Amino acid sequence: MPQNCALIVGALGVTGRALVEHLADDPDWSVVALSRRAPDFETSARFLSVDLHDADATRAALAGLAPVTHVFFTAYSPDPDIAAEIPINVGMLANLMDAIEPVAENLQQCAADARGQVSTARFWANTARRHVKTTRARR
User: Fold this and answer.
1) pTM of the model
2) How far apart are CA 112 and CA 137, in angstroms?
């Protein structure tokens, strides 16, 4: 029985796919992969089609993911205008964390590939701090 459950967000991108392929082959891990598209490769990972731009749909899709212990955020929504790109990507991260934090009772660690986006990285750091405080308060 796997000891860890990875939630890989942006699972069909370069980084996400590499994580899916690596962890799905490890008997200590079960993998839930999020993407807007279906996978184009065979995997034992459970894929969920989720549009992180939609907060309600994200909450509904993640509602049953209590076993998640680790979140790997590799999602990215590019825009030619960097000023427009930042709030889009920060919004996706916020929708994810707002959906997973209340249900993943054993969440231990979150990691983000912010691709050098300072705003996303700062938001992620603040979200992670909030999660640690919330987790400690539950114990």
Assistant:
1) 0.82
2) 24
Residues 68, 32: Cα–Cα separation, whole Å: 8
* 45 Cα distance to chain centroid: 14
Q: What pLDDT is attached to residue 60?
A: 97
All structural domains of the chain: 4-138 (3.40.50.720)
Cα distances (Å, whole numbers) of residue 9 to 48, 56, 131, 136? 10, 17, 18, 25
β-strand pairing of 46-49 with 29-35: parallel
Cα angle 67-9-26, degrees, rounded to a multiple of 5: 60
Sign of the dihedral through C-alpha 39, 44, 45, 50: positive
Helix (H) or strand (E) run with residue 134 in it: helix 118-138
